[in-house]
Amino acid sequence: MPELPEVEALAGFLREHALGAVIGRIDVAALSVLKTFDPPVTDLQGKDITGAARWGKHLGIEAGGLWLVTHLSRGGWLRWTDNPSSAPPKPGKGPLALRVHLFTTEGLTPAFDLTEAGTRKRLAVWVVRDPQEVPGIARLGPDALAVTEPEFAELLARKSSRLKTALVDQQLLAGIGNAYSDEILHTAKLSPFATTASLTPESVNLLWTTMRSVLLDAVARSEGQDAARLKGEKRSGMRVHARTGMPCPVCGDTVREVSYVDRSFQYCPTCQTGGRILADRRLSRLVK
Description:
alpha+beta, four-stranded antiparallel beta sheet
């Protein structure tokens, strides 16, 4: 799933490549992605793109007083093409959900596609006059890169849960998902199952500082990358996430995994849990 660094990079990519372009035809290949009908998506046609922004893991472009906002969900992505097909896509065929054709000041006619891999289609698109009309944006907590340390400490104090759960709760803190929460907790050497109530002021400072460091490093590595290369850049920077069975790059211990019904997370026992193995919740009780 694209998280704060990748979505921030995509917003930057759109600001660099799409700002000033005029929106042409919009092809909707999967009607299920549209979550609004007023204003209709066709109202964007003929309007100049004047901005691109990110709210948590939501991405949007502004044109003519309207916003086209998307949440890419788990399998979604934005793909840029300089030579799009002029033929409208066939609905329900392949990963394409929506295509936005553009006309640039240089006379070029590129397009960007919103695509979604897999069979569980969750990618969503809204056309709104104000981004706050998008329910997910209206419920967001403060952005993970904007929250101050005192605000962060207050948020954690109000949340009685495990650290892993707290970091990915978008209503508590916006922008962090499964991957970067794994990386943040590993870098801070904190157990995913430690509770927010157990944190000392020193641990809160460590977690806040590490969160900013990990996210800012990922943003810096993503800046200027072509949209097609961002996924690879994200994977290359991971130390424990999606590296089950591989050696921890810090201590050499084997990276372990805890699996749920439709997701999993990774951690290093030596770095994070004092050598203890956290049991798979599907099989036995959690080892705290």
